[in-house]
Design brief:
Elements lengths: L4 H19 L9 E8 L6 E8 L2 H6 L11 E3 L2 E3 L7 E4 L9 E7 L5 E6 L5 E4 L12 H17 L1 H13 L3 H23 L7 H20 L5 H4 L1 H23 L6 H30 L6 H29 L4
Parallel strand pairs: 1-6
Antiparallel strand pairs: 1-2, 2-4, 3-4, 5-8, 6-7
Helix pairs in contact: 1-10, 3-9, 4-6, 4-9, 4-10, 5-8, 6-8, 6-10
Length: 332
């Protein structure tokens, strides 16, 4: 093979791999899934209607009592009575441990508060917070731990946000500029995240998700532009603008998960802390890999360009998909 072709292959390989992974059907083991819903009955404080659905008929019939509820709560047919104390404590699914089944738990209170969790064989329980609003930070430890981890998890599993952070790290040259750009992104998404959670700013999710995908395309485009641009001269201004969009995306996920009614500010703060921990971890990894790539006998610029094309191609696909879904979906 002509050696002149090698740089082009190195550039195209990540892009072709990304297209293949996006278009190829995913073959895997079929997993059982189930859902447990607890809806507080209107006019009956501490009384919940229990709903249990499973994809497996065996699972549906064999588990008449799918969960172990906190001690004050007692099952009464299709209802769960927790009395004046309310539904507070750990809801455990002992049978789930070690299995490949996923169980979606949704709890809804009359006040409109909502708690959403997906339980797995490695994590078969969920804690319903009953911490007094006057409690100190030490008493709030379960909320601090849970929502910090949820923030980290959101960055690591939210591939659009993840690609944006990677593209941003590849775009910005110089430690000070990178710190400034990341700080501006953090401030911006913290603002819109808080505004959306407290109900001060509401935008439909589909166009926001489409705009987030487009932001990745634009940053990837800036990465391969040979000429100077605003994104290179003042990256903090660009990341601040895009951070406003990403904050709305974070808010959508956080509102779907649910927030503890008495501790919304605490949960919001530590979810944001988790997002930053995950974000800084990704940036550190990209920088470390860049330094490693500079020491091996491969052209770093070629690898970097190929990675940017792969990310831009994936984000372009998401953009088209989300724009079409926005235009063809229900009227906004």
């Amino acid at each position: 093979m002509n050696r002149r072709c090698l740089p082009w292959l190195a550039r195209l390989l990540p892009f072709l791999l990304a297209v293949f992974l996006a278009s190829a059907p995913a073959d895997g083991h079929e997993l059982n899934s189930a859902s447990l819903s607890l809806t507080e009955v209107e006019g009956h404080e501490g009384r919940f209607l229990v709903g249990w659905q499973a994809s497996s008929s065996t699972l549906q019939s064999e588990l008449a009592t799918p969960a172990v509820f906190p001690p004050p709560c007692k099952l009464d047919g299709a209802f769960l009575d927790c009395g004046q104390a309310g539904l507070v404590g750990a809801i455990e699914l002992p049978w789930l441990e070690g299995t490949e089944t996923n169980v979606m738990v949704v709890i809804e209170w009359r006040s409109g508060s909502r708690l959403f969790r997906v339980l797995t064989g490695s994590d078969p329980s969920v804690v319903v917070y009953g911490i007094p609003s006057s409690a100190g930070l030490r008493a709030l430890k379960p909320i601090v731990v849970d929502y910090t981890w949820l923030g980290v998890e959101h960055i690591l599993t939210g591939f659009d946000h993840l690609l944006f952070v990677v593209a941003l790290t590849l775009l910005v040259r110089g430690g000070r500029k990178l710190v400034g750009a990341v700080t501006a992104f953090t401030v911006a998404h913290s603002l819109t995240l808080a505004c959306a959670v407290f109900g001060w700013l509401t935008l439909p999710a589909p166009p926001v998700e489409a705009a987030i995908a487009l932001s990745i395309v634009l940053v990837c485009g800036e990465c391969i532009r040979p000429n100077d641009s605003l994104a290179r001269r003042a990256p903090w201004a660009v990341t601040f603008a895009f951070g406003l969009l990403h904050g709305l995306g974070f808010a959508s996920s956080l509102l779907d998960i649910g927030l503890p009614e008495r501790h919304v500010p605490t949960a919001l703060l530590f979810f944001n802390v988790g997002v930053e921990i995950g974000q800084l971890g990704v940036i550190a990894l990209v920088v470390a890999l860049s330094l490693f790539a500079a020491r091996i006998p491969v052209q770093p610029a070629t690898v970097r360009r190929g990675l940017v094309y792969a990310m831009g191609g994936m984000a372009g696909y998401w953009s088209i998909e989300r724009i079409v879904a926005t235009l063809t979906g229900p009227s906004l």
